[in-house]
Amino acid sequence: MDKTYEPIATQTLGSAAASVIFGSIPQTYTDLVLIVNTQTSSNVNVFMRFNEDTSSNYSDTRLVGNGSAASSGRLTSQTSAIIISGDPSLNFSTYKVDIFNYTNATTFKTFLIRSNTADRAASLVGLWRATPAAISTINIRVDTGTFNTGSTFTLYGIKAA
Amino acid sequence: MATFNLIQTVTVGAGGAATINFTSIPQIYTDLIVYLSGRYDNAVSFNAGALRFNNDSGNNYSYRVLRGNGSSVDSFSGTTSYIEFGTNQGSGSTANIFGSHSAYIPNYAGSTFKSVSMDQVAENNAIETRMQLTSGLWSSTSAITLITIFPGGGYNWVQYSSASLYGISKT
User: Fold this and answer.
1) Mind telling me how many Å the CA of B4 is from chain A's nearest CA?
2) Which residue in A35, A121, A123 is closest to B64 by CB distance?
């Protein structure tokens, strides 16, 4: 039986890095799943970009629970998609990103993020509204500091059949 | 090897069970996923469950919860001897309805602290329901070899509660 959930690439940091890039993403799947298990060197946001697009084409709406209050917010016209806000405890955190219909060149791209840090639980829905293009590159990065050694990043492809 | 591999399924039999355990977890995968369908034998409508690794009953766990019940939302946290595994129905809720849970555990065989992402719903076809997102952390560098999931308050899983553990492979 053909596999429908396939690992495309995985990266485990042997040394600290400020960004991790998945390039030349095969265009043979229906959807993508990105799993990130990472620790940052300082309390900073973790971001994601598609196709190295640095224009103000990203927006999101989120639900957040910080252990004492629930909240919702949104950001529009951002130059990156925020995967998670900073984690003051600097523990390892887990992010799961579902990216839908990533190969089509006719519609904007939407994605769901589940973010888990020692500081909060969050769910986000994001939009990338660059001129419709297939996603061929994903860049996960921090603005300052680095991802620590041992952080892992894995991209999976989902086949419809 | 497939990417998504069933390691073990546990189904609770007649008489119920105090815990659901996955033991001797193979260390050959990248990540683990638990899917659980459960209901408790306590008389209340809803009750929280708990997740524990390697039989570690020390206060080495912390969690943050975001929860909605159909009319309001709240958030709470804990630093204790387990990660809250979300809410399941008890006998006080609508009959024959079980809660559904998923837990994603990346890098379970590694030597860093273990971060867990959990989603849970306990729909009830009644006034109150529960939906919950949980971020959990086990502050241990040990590889996960055993997972225990149990109802809070010393209650039991009822018959037909079930859970499956999957291993995710990168190859």
Assistant:
1) 7
2) A121
B positions 37-96 inside 8 Å of A (CB): 62, 64-68, 73-77
Q: Could you report the predicted ipTM of this complex, rounded to two decimals?
A: 0.89
The residue assigned the tokens 């859970």 is B163
* Residues 6 or more apart in contact with residue B75 via CB below 8 angstroms: A64, A65, A66, A67, A68, A69, A70, A121, B64, B65, B66, B67
Pick among A89, A94, A96, A158 to test the B interface (most B CBs inside 10 A): A94
Q: What is the pTM of this model?
A: 0.93
- The per-residue pLDDT for range B59-91, each reduced to its tens digit, is 999 999 999 988 899 999 999 999 999 888 888
Query: Nearest by CB to B133, which of A65, A117, A156?
Result: A65
For residue A16, the domain's CATH number is: 2.60.120
Distance between B159 CA and the closest CA of chain A, angstroms: 31
Q: Which fold has domain B4-168?
A: Jelly Rolls (2.60.120)
The bridge status of strand A58-65 relative to strand A121-128 is antiparallel
**What residue numbers bound the domain in which A32 lies?**
5-158
DSSP H or E segment with residue A49:
strand A46-50
